[in-house]
Design a protein that fits this description.
This protein is an all-alpha fold and 197 residues long. The chain has 9 helices and no strands.
């Protein structure tokens, strides 16, 4: 198989994967999954084996096609599955989604990136690209701290010379802290507020 044929096959697989992701997202949106925690619970909560797989898939989709804030779905994972299993399922889904976003950004370039993020966000972080070493450090810090626009930065990282190996290590080591903070803040913060109301 020559390089042109293999590239066409990779592009076809990527397009099929994107089409499937969009169709699944539209379906989830149509059943109210992104608006209602009860809808999410009905879909995944009572399915012992399929529930975690469906939830991980939802987490992958929310990274690739950002319809809902990641913090909300992260908290939902903890509420549905408990703190340990919820953290684990969140971590798997977010890591896979982040790597997919990086690869999509690399494969399809700036036009694709700008189709998913605003010009304002792009312009804000493009200045980091001047120096690859500096970008890698700033990117690692942004992934570690929970309030940076992680998904946009993962997408934009695909436009840099960062290797997939470096990107993967940053995501694998940096994501647990932000997932833990989001989960704790949203779950326990909501419980604390409800006690005062």
């Amino acid at each position: 198989m020559n390089a042109i044929t293999s590239k066409r096959i990779i592009n076809l697989i990527s397009l099929i994967g994107m089409a499937f992701s969009i169709a699944l997202t539209v379906y989830f949106f149509s059943i109210g999954l992104f608006d209602d925690l009860n809808a999410l619970q009905n879909l995944v909560g009572e399915k012992l084996f399929l529930g975690p797989i469906i939830f991980i898939l939802i987490q992958i989709l929310q990274v690739v096609i950002p319809i809902i804030p990641g913090g909300i779905s992260t908290a939902a994972g903890v509420l549905l599955f408990g703190p340990v299993a919820g953290f684990f399922y969140n971590y798997i889904g977010i890591v896979i989604g982040s790597i997919l976003v990086f690869l999509l950004g690399r494969q399809y370039g700036k036009p694709f990136v700008l189709s998913l993020i605003s010009e304002k966000t792009y312009e804000k972080y493009i200045v980091w690209f001047d120096n690859q070493g500096r970008f890698n450090k700033l990117f690692a810090l942004a992934i570690f701290f929970p309030f940076a626009p992680d998904d946009a930065l993962c997408l934009m990282a695909g436009l840099t010379n960062m290797s997939l190996k470096t990107f993967s290590w940053i995501i694998l080591l940096g994501k647990p802290a932000s997932i833990l903070v989001y989960s704790s803040a949203l779950v326990y913060g909501t419980n604390l507020i409800s006690q005062f109301l």
